[in-house]
Batch of 4 targets.
Target 1
Amino acid sequence: MNAEKTLSNIEPIALSEATPITRASPKYVYDRTGTLVQVPVDTLAVTYDPSDLTKAPYALVEPAATNLLKYSERFATLWSTDPNAGSATENFALAPDGQMSANLIAAQLNGASTVCGYRYQSQVLTAGDWTLSVFVGKLAASPYVLLQLATGFRVCINLDTREYFAVALPAGTITCEFLEEAAGLVRIAISGTLPAGNAVTMIGLGSSTGQLILAPAYAVGEGHLFWGAQLEQGRKATSYIPTAAAAVTRAADSIAPDYGLIFSTLSENDDDDAPLYIATKTYAAGDRVRRAETHQVYESAVANNLGNTPEQNSDGSAAKWTRVRPTNRWAMFDGSIGTSSEADETLTVVLRPGVAIDSIYGVVDADLAQVCVHDAPGGNIIYQNTIELEASAPSDWDEYFWDPFKPLPDFLITGLDPYYECFVTVTLSKASGKVGCAGLVLGTQWQLGATQYGVKVKPKSYSYVGEDEYGNTTIRSRKKSTDLAGTAWLDRSEASYVNQIGQRLLDVPAVWIASSNPEDFALRCYGLGSLEISYDFPQDCQLSFNVKGVISATNTTA
């Protein structure tokens, strides 16, 4: 069955506000420009890959870690050195944090014939796994740098080929990894299992290691850029921890056993929504308030409105309040596509569904949709993709210069590996202007049949159009939706199963998909669907579907 021409639907899961992440210290990650920035205490950190900013950003959840190296960004006077062991110049070049704080470590003559340049610190370490990482930028012709995790655990690294040589150690004793690249500096990490005791951690130039002579050698005054040194326990470099006169610990990201919306760049506030409702305040007719419990904005329908909780007094002919709209933060999750969450240029949300999902659907106004899914908070990435929401394909120069752009109003992701503890990061962005999301649906996709030609798409408007006795037309523009109808073929053995799906979703707004081709966005809609199965043939059945597009739905029990 052709996946693009398969009739299916996505049954949405309900989302609620989850307990936000806690972290007792700041954290450093990369923003959308590739610059290392500080994330405040108790705020989930979403990071970009500075080596490739087109990759989807993701929520970075980490355990606690301590950087034992003091003055991680200052190597000139605050790290130890030996006589004739080269020079270090602070504030020499641009660093990953956007500041002119990268250090130049340059070689000088050491004895009669060799040159070297390095800086070191001494530590007392416990036995176990340790990792040293530092940002390095190549300047000199010689590509070799030297990193020493501890005395005797030394690596010489070729910045051009990204090969490394473990000096006087068995193969596999030390591992070396090239990580992110920012501001022209690449972060290099070496890891190894160390015995307990004193350890000398060293960074510097590596044309001569004492065990291995490499060419070309450094000339006096030549060197490379170094910045952001970090020594921590474990065999993996974690997010950068800046230090000064003492070691610094970055607290763990603590996530409660809770599910729903973990993080959003949008907040509920007085400016975007309305002031919080106060039970002891008297409201005039027309006053607006918001309720954190329902994520809704209400308008007072009467004067002298005192002590009437909005959500408990918003129905019936004697209603004291009128529900106006969801808050801007929650409009994208209110179970409709008639309202939209909006932000300037970038909108990011992090979700923990609490159930296994295999599909994500969004109705958006954006240039890019970027989605990253982890199998668990702080786990492995199982999906990462950037979707360009533009379908223009000019066939000649006239169309290229004069035809309007053709933005795609939705995106669809299916076939995700299902994990019960999955962690989903969605980022929508525009080069400029407002980015919007009318609906973001996470759920399970149900395959219903093979869509046949002849699907009908019917735009529907809720606008008022009236004429007076003189022929004057009055138009009051309102929201719009789309109805969808057509047929599909399915195997007779699947008919009863498909009928059960249709019964379950009769009164449940869901995403209905007649084609998953990005350019066939008109063949996808959010609405209430009904199915009719005709057993016309021995092996196959014909399935008729009719979807009533909805812009808002409130489900009440009679």
Target 2
Amino acid sequence: MAENQRQQFRFSEAPIWDLQRNYYEEEGMKAWNNDQVPQYISSNPMMATSYAEMIFGFLQDRAGTGDLSEPVTIMELGAGAGRLAFHTLHRLCELRDYAGIELPPFRYVMTDLASKNVLAWQHHPALQPFIREGLLDFARFDAVRDTEVHLAVAQTTIRPGDLKQPLIIVANYFFDVIPQELIYVHDGEVYECDISVEFPDNLKELTTSETLKQMKLNYVNRPAPEYREKTYPYHDLIDMYVSELDDSYILFPVAGLTCLDRLHRLSRAGFLLITADKGDHRLEHWDLADPPEFFHHGSFSLTANYHAIQHVLEQRGGLSLFTKEHHYHAINVGCILMLESPMRYANTRLAFRRFVDRFGPDEFFSLKEWVDQHSGSMGLQQILAFWRLGGYDAEFFIQSTKRISALLPEAGEEELLDIQNGIHIMWSSFYVMEQRYDLALDAGLLLFEMEFYDDAKEFLSLSIETDEDESVPTVLFCLAICSYEQGDKEAAMTYLRDALVLEPEHEDALALLHALTAEE
């Protein structure tokens, strides 16, 4: 490390935040390749189900007040790969169609800092039906600076005071990646915690991600009495920290709070915040807290201070919902109602109780960690039950196909039908990521093993069409069998000949082609 490259900054103004912005703007959708930036924990169907249920409850509550004409805007901050938005909209539309009740219209707006992401969403095949229905729009939105939202599809701008319905804000793993202040409290005093940043000697040779991982940070405390002056907007909360905590480093979400203030001004009727992150809402969590840990994953993330967000919004009349009877393990999900008479929103509150507090994304993820270690010994009914619980998630199916295949000889007819039905449900809500996985191949081969030849041919054909250059003789042979079982002997022979072009010594293909030729 070069001494002349070491500099000291206020924590929220350090170059780490510019590097963070650069990383996402440079990488775009590729940031989520190989789970470089984690996405499953924050974007799986279970998380989306919890969000959709709370949004649906809110729409019911608005309908109950007679607010049915004006649309409700749902704005996701930092929508990233887009998987959460897709699953949430998919679940929300299912609830709407199943209930068959009158609700206010709604539109979901995916936003991100990276223009590459906004452009990629607009062309993603899975999102096109929502765009055509008028349910989905997109915007590049800088959460640290912007005061307006420019919609890409509608070609309109949401300005302060434009929204007549409350705004629904989805902040999913958002507060942990935007700038924060860092303070230190000790012996009744508050200190600004600056950081000294030491860059690697070969800085110009490194990618943004490598720079973030290799630079060294040191903390330097300096007295900051200005935090306790009456003119500081959060002085009462700082006073609480000084009096209740000691020897504690506290991440303070000024940028997050001011972002919520700017979004609040877009609506005349307040907002509903639905959020999830790693970060606690309990004051005691921050007592004796060490300097913040940087979690590196391509970019970096910190811990979200939900206690500060909860306290500030409650002081302004909001109602916050976080788990009260148990502590979170990996994902803390919260819902804050910054609305007039928030207790009237019974359906919203009940949805939080049922789909977060009683059993929600955090509990599901804890179970999944166990399942990941034991899936090789699970029975078919256990696998099917967990697959249903997770909303027929493709990732779980992919990791379970070998085990399911091994259990097929003992499976009953109803279990086979449940697997078949689950595959179709899974496929209807599959969101293709930048780094593609051939889910159609896995589904088709499993259906072939179960002798559901019509379905197997449908999925195996999709696999071939998606990547014609990667055709596998075994897949072509399976397609030949499917065609023969359907009574299409000509198609079967064509598939066999194609398989033999790729692998001339394929014994099964040779034998079947010989038998079919002899029948003519």
Target 3
Amino acid sequence: MKNKIYTILFAAVVCFASCNLDKESPDSIPFDKAFSDMGSIEALERGAYSRLRTAYSISSMILPDLQADYVHAISGFSNTYGNVYQWTFSQDDGDIATVWNDLYGGIAFYNFIIEGIDSKLGFEPTASERTALNNIQGRMYLMRALSYSLLAERFCGDYDAATAKNEYSGVPLVTTYDSSKKPARASLYDVYDKILKDIEQAKQLLADQNGSPNSTTLNLDCVLALEARVLLQTDNYPEALKKANDLIGKQTYTLIDSEEELREMWTYDRSPETIFQFYASKTETAYQWGYYFYNEYNNGTDNKQYTMYPDYIPAQGCVDRYDAADWRRTVYFLDCTTDAPVDGRFIVAIIKGQSMFARNLTVISKYPGNPDLRTTSAWNYYNTFKPFRLAEMYLIAAEAAVLSGGDAETPLNELRMHRGLPKLPAVTLADVQEERYREMMMEGTRLTDLKRWGLGMTRGKAQEGEASKTGGNPWSYIDFVTEIGSDISKPKGDYMFVWPIPASEIFANQQLGGQQNPGWVR
């Protein structure tokens, strides 16, 4: 019976893997051949990457920022992710359950590969094959550590050494491939302890796998980047500073030098700053990260004008936090204005709920879609996600330095200069917080940052301006956003900063009974 379960799960997972090599299709490999040769194991690894990419979904990475203070929903929006945006979600929310299920589905598969390489090999590997197997296993440890770090960020409170060992403060730890095991929640201390142990395993097994910019293969530099992030999350500021500076000091990656290079990073998915990004092609498509912010009514095919059709637009308070000299102001945002054409076309935006054309409205353009991933001239909004970037290492170094009495000016000012901004004479925690807000917009970190800093959340002033039925005279002054959720303000420590354990998971795993996060209905 257990072999039957393994076979079903194996087939379900590896069918996601894309084979751009001349190998047997991975979903055609039966279970008893899973570890019979290197080709089969490599197919499993492709399945693992596919699992990880699924876990880094729009629900997982955009939802926390929609819940926070970056955006307002436009009048008449589609209500996609509306419950989270409005803070009305519950333990029955399907999007949140999807994040949980995708992360644990991936963990099960990484466990399967780790154990298989340890004990199920059907051949005697050569020396070079053993090295390759070590590397694959190292990437599985890294994927598992990444997954547990995301689970801790989404479904647990902020790490506090005084409470981290409290029972049920973490998430269930599943470290073996056994579908019959349904553990209770571990402590948050134990979860992060396991993450750091997996990081150490990955370091050893990937010691010979140095990275390079824009890598689509997990490598040693990714391990170091995750380690710095986790050490910051667990308040180990001296070590977080050291690890971030170690990676910066390798000089494998460099900060961009111009607005054009910044635009290339987010449009064409290539940059000397990118430590790791997911693979994407015209056939192995990425997610449409910008669809709900940068959707164009005609998908870019109207030769006369661009008509933006977003569900969410940046809060005016968000836009105002970017100085005019900041390169991110014109890369992360697009101003819809009838004052001057862009590429020979004027830009307008539709206010869905009022069937009106707005002028002087700003939309988020951080994920405009990579033209190299289009199959026709129409926009398809595909960009690949970048879990590790050099800019984050500078922000980690600056924050850790501020909180440990180190040199925060050097890393923060280095990043600022490479974003078109002047140096600050002195750097405070508030300065780091502002820079992180600007840099990491819509990368899934905002809710975690607010928890770590012990801050509340207030959606700032909304955009408003002129609109007309025709896109021409007469223009009238209107509110661009829906009133629903527009004025939300939450104090620090509000229980909804921590997502609930999905009710479906509690029903399936009776060990979780009575272990729901504080504030949520049990």
Target 4
Amino acid sequence: MAFLHRLYPAQISHRISFLVLVMLILSLFSIWSKNDSSSLDGEHTVSVEYTVAMKRFSNHEDAPWLKDNKQFELIQNSNFNLKSKPFAWLKISNVDGALSPSSRVLINIKRNNIFTPIKLYHFDGTLWQQRSFVSIDNSYKDLVAVMPSSIESPVVYVQLSGRYLRGNVQLLNDSELIRQSKTDSIIDGVYFGILALFIFFNLIIYKVFNRVSHLSYSLLLTVTFIWIASGQGWISFFNEQLTTVPVFTPNSLGILFSFAIALFSRQFLQMKVINPKINKVLYYNQLLAIAFWFLYIVTYQSLPHFIFQLGYVLCSINTLVILLGSILGAIAGIYRGRNNAKLYLLAMIVLISVAISMSLSASGLVNISFSWRTFQLASVLEVIILSIGFVVEHYQKHRELEEIEHKIKDLESELKTYKIDTNSLKSNISDNLVDSQLIPVLAKVLPILPHLLWVKADGNYCVASYKNENSTDEQFIDCNLQLLLDSIGDEKLLRCHKSYLVNLSQPYQLTRRTSADYDLVIGEHRVPIGRKYLSMVRKAFKSSEQY
């Protein structure tokens, strides 16, 4: 165990961390930039120059319509998107008029998860001839058709169908297709290997150090792993039937990704301590994401189109709220002096930029070339940034604990006298981000803690009331109620009202004051109970309740 702790060094330099980050980012960019055979880069990989134009339709149009019609719009980088139209034709034109080169030319189409038939048409001078596209693998996302060897004009057409079908078309030869497949497989193997390694590493840290944020990060990485594997068709490579299971569809996994982001943001940034309001927003949107996911699974492919679109919009809004909440939480963390929040903010900026690009690309509002390869790169950058964030967090926690231990040593004799658990006190102060400068203030509370009755808020300060033989005295404390509760812990103190804490070891009686209001009574003293705290008070003083 001690050996594993040493493997997680606390004294790592921030400058070295950022240098490693920059080097890894530059390396990754160089690897991805060399993948010029990627289908969605929009680069032409054969010597034949060509252009691609598109015409979308609300109704089906047969091939004879194509002969004399010139109402096609040129598309950039050969990326097509049918948007809300159910039908479209692509027009592939050879610029130099030599669409039939000596070597065999293939038309390669990579598309999203809308698996409708795609067909190739050309006119031989007498009749329209048709060819079907075939899948390179069993994912049905990567399609290919052989260019006709002899045609009347240097133009061929591709018939598309399916709302929101989008993808990319390119011309290449056999050797280039093989090289592209090999390159894509190598990059995917490296990517999924990196993700699997980080998932395993974070699970080990969770098991050894009991850090819940590492467990939620493992969940986030796992969902990302399966989401991208599904989007790229790797799920069908292992089991073709899984593509029909709603849980493994990209839409389903995208909703789960939103849930995982909300959970991780709350834990990594300690939102419950840093900003309870943002924590609640993320929590409720996290539950909403699960509700959307469950409804999607139950109603998979059974809803009318406009209902499905409404659900898509609501899920997008939910995801946007989660991302914005995470960004605001990171800003709040930076304001509280948390160094890991700076890196988290950077990771969220990367993620939200990709999410906006992804949404705009899917809706067709702007002509942005977005691919799963882009999302892969963004997720690797995010993994690197957040991993350094974990190191920075650990380094900061280590320094804070050292400072807390140093100050607690001065109170060691008092802590033993009043039977205060030193480790529990350190844990409370560290986990709740209490400033170690307040430890001397806590020293005023420790002598009266066994006799403490209640603590009442007084602006940004508070006043402790305690038994002193036959009377009740007061002690001014130079901190607010929440800091006092965070430091001493809820196993000794209970918040019963926004302005009151009570000592759980005292024999209070829970008494009804009106039909809806209650008090905690001890002797001649009454402490009011706020309605939002009543259920917690009842659990704590259940045996003493009087009506």
